[in-house]
Write a structure and sequence with these properties.
This protein has 406 residues and is of the alpha/beta class. The chain is built from 18 helices and 10 strands.
Length: 406
C-alpha cells in the first residue's frame, strides 16, 4: 500500500522494480514510517532504501514501537569537515598539500597562512551543508550565513516542541542554550539551572546526547586500551553539534572579513577545542556513534587536564589543543609522567613539526624526567592525524641504507 501511494506521489509506476533509490527524508516526521522499514527489508529487499532524519530518538521516545533492529544499517552523518569545505571551495592545491605532506618536509609558509585563514572562516561558518553552500554562492555574505544558523537553531527548538512533553520542553531549551557557552568545561548540573533537580537536567541532557545534538566526552583513566574500559560517566565535558552554531548561539551575528582576520574572540580556546572534537569524531566508523574521552585529575588547589585521549597505532595518545602559537604543557607532562607515554600530539597555529621532548620537573616531592615525541600539528591538519602520526618514528630513526660494493 505504501509503495502504491508513493508511486502516484512521485509519478512513477515502477517503484517496486527496484530500478532506482527510495529516499525517505525527515522520516522522524512520520514515526510509523520508521516501523515500516522492517517490512521493506523483509518483503522488498531488492529496493534500495535510505531513510534520513534528525532527532529520531525524540520520535522514538514518544511512540511505543522500537527501531527495527537487524533490519537496517545505521550510518551516522556528521557536519561537513574542514577538508570537505575546501573541496566545496575548489581549493584543490591546498587539499593535495594536506593529503600528501609528510612530517619533515618543508611546509610552504604561504599555504600555512592561507589554511589558517580558511580554518578561521570554518570556525564561523561551521560544517552545516546549507551554511557552507550559502557562503560560497553568496560571495561570502556573512549576513546570509548567520541567517542560516538562526534558521537551523530555531528549527531544532521547534522540533523539541513536537516530540518532547511540555514538562521537559523548558529543560531541553536550557540545556541546548547552555552547552555552547560551557563547551570544554567539566559539566555541573547546577550551572544549567540551580533551581532544578539534577535528575531532570540529566534526562534532557541524555536525550540531546542520544540525538547527536550534544556530544559527551567522559573522563578515562587512560592507562591502556580500550579507553572506555576505565571511563567515569559521572565526570564529563560537553561539545556541541557544530562550531558555526556554537558561535551563533554565543552571540556572533555580525562580522566583516577584516574583523575575522584581526579580532580575537573571547571564546577562542573553547572554539578551537570544539573544532578538534568535531573532527576527531570523524576518525571513527560511520556505522556507530563516535565516543571521545579525556583525562582529568582534580587536586585540592590545582587541576590537571588533557583535552583528549585517542587511540592511534594500538596505543593511548594524549592530545592537547591550543588556540594560539604557544601554551603550557604542564598537564600533558603530568599525564605522560604518570602513564609512561612515549608519544603525544599538540594542535595549535604553528606549521607541522615533530620534536623530542626531555623535561625535568618536580612530581610528588621528587625530581622526575619525562622524554617523549611530540607531534605538533596546525588545527587544520586534524583530519590527517592518523596518517601523519605514522611518520613520527621515521623522524628519529631514519631508515638505514645498506651499500653492497660492486
Amino acid at each position: 500500500m505504501i509503495l502504491q501511494e508513493l508511486a502516484y506521489i512521485c509519478g512513477k509506476g515502477d517503484i517496486q522494480s527496484g530500478h532506482g533509490l527510495l529516499f525517505l527524508d525527515e522520516i522522524q516526521a512520520v514515526p510509523a514510517a520508521i516501523a515500516s522499514l522492517r517490512y521493506f527489508y523483509e518483503d522488498f529487499p531488492h529496493i534500495p532504501l535510505i531513510a534520513a532524519g534528525s532527532l529520531l530518538e525524540f520520535a522514538l521516545a514518544k511512540h511505543s514501537f522500537s527501531m527495527p533492529v537487524g533490519r537496517i544499517q545505521y550510518l551516522f552523518l556528521e557536519p561537513m569537515s574542514f577538508e570537505e569545505m575546501l573541496t566545496a571551495m575548489e581549493e584543490d592545491s591546498l587539499l593535495a598539500l594536506l593529503r600528501t605532506y609528510r612530517i619533515g618536509d618543508h611546509f610552504p609558509l604561504a599555504a600555512h597562512e592561507r589554511l589558517l585563514e580558511l580554518q578561521r572562516i570554518y570556525l564561523l561558518i561551521g560544517g552545516m551543508p546549507e551554511a557552507i553552500h550559502c557562503f560560497i554562492q553568496s560571495n561570502r555574505d556573512w549576513e546570509q550565513v548567520f541567517d542560516v544558523h538562526a534558521s537551523i537553531s530555531l528549527t531544532y527548538k521547534d522540533d523539541f516542541a513536537k516530540y518532547a512533553r511540555q514538562s521537559a520542553l523548558l529543560m531541553l531549551h536550557k540545556v541546548f542554550d547552555y552547552t555552547p557557552h560551557g563547551i570544554g568545561e567539566k559539566f555541573k548540573y547546577v550551572r544549567v539551572d540551580p533551581d532544578t533537580q539534577a535528575r531532570d537536567v540529566r534526562k534532557a541532557l541524555e536525550l540531546l546526547v542520544m540525538a547527536q545534538v550534544i556530544r559527551k566526552v567522559c573522563h578515562s583513566d587512560g592507562s591502556g586500551l580500550p579507553l572506555r574500559a576505565t571511563v567515569n560517566e559521572r565526570v564529563f565535558k560537553l561539545f556541541f553539534l557544530d562550531c558555526g552554531l556554537v558561535n551563533h548561539l554565543c552571540g556572533i551575528t555580525r562580522i566583516t572579513l577584516d574583523e575575522l582576520k584581526t579580532r580575537p574572540f573571547i571564546n577562542e580556546g573553547k572554539i578551537a577545542e570544539q573544532f578538534i572534537a568535531q573532527h576527531l569524531t570523524l576518525l571513527g566508523r560511520a556505522t556507530s556513534p563516535a565516543t571521545l574521552t579525556y583525562w582529568l585529575r582534580e587536586g585540592r588547589s590545582v587541576n590537571a587536564e588533557v583535552d583528549f585521549l585517542v587511540q592511534l597505532e594500538q596505543r593511548v595518545v594524549p592530545v592537547e589543543v591550543k588556540a594560539g602559537k604557544s601554551g603550557s604543557l604542564k598537564s600533558l607532562l603530568q599525564f605522560i609522567c604518570q602513564k609512561g607515554m612515549k608519544k603525544a600530539v599538540r594542535f595549535d597555529l604553528n606549521p607541522p613539526s615533530v620534536q623530542q621532548v626531555s623535561h625535568k620537573f618536580a612530581q610528588s616531592g621528587e625530581s622526575q624526567r619525562v622524554e617523549f615525541a611530540l607531534l605538533n600539528l596546525p588545527l587544520y591538519m586534524v583530519e590527517q592525524l592518523v596518517r601523519v602520526f605514522e611518520d613520527i618514528d621515521d623522524c628519529f630513526n631514519p631508515p638505514s641504507h645498506s651499500h653492497t660494493p660492486r
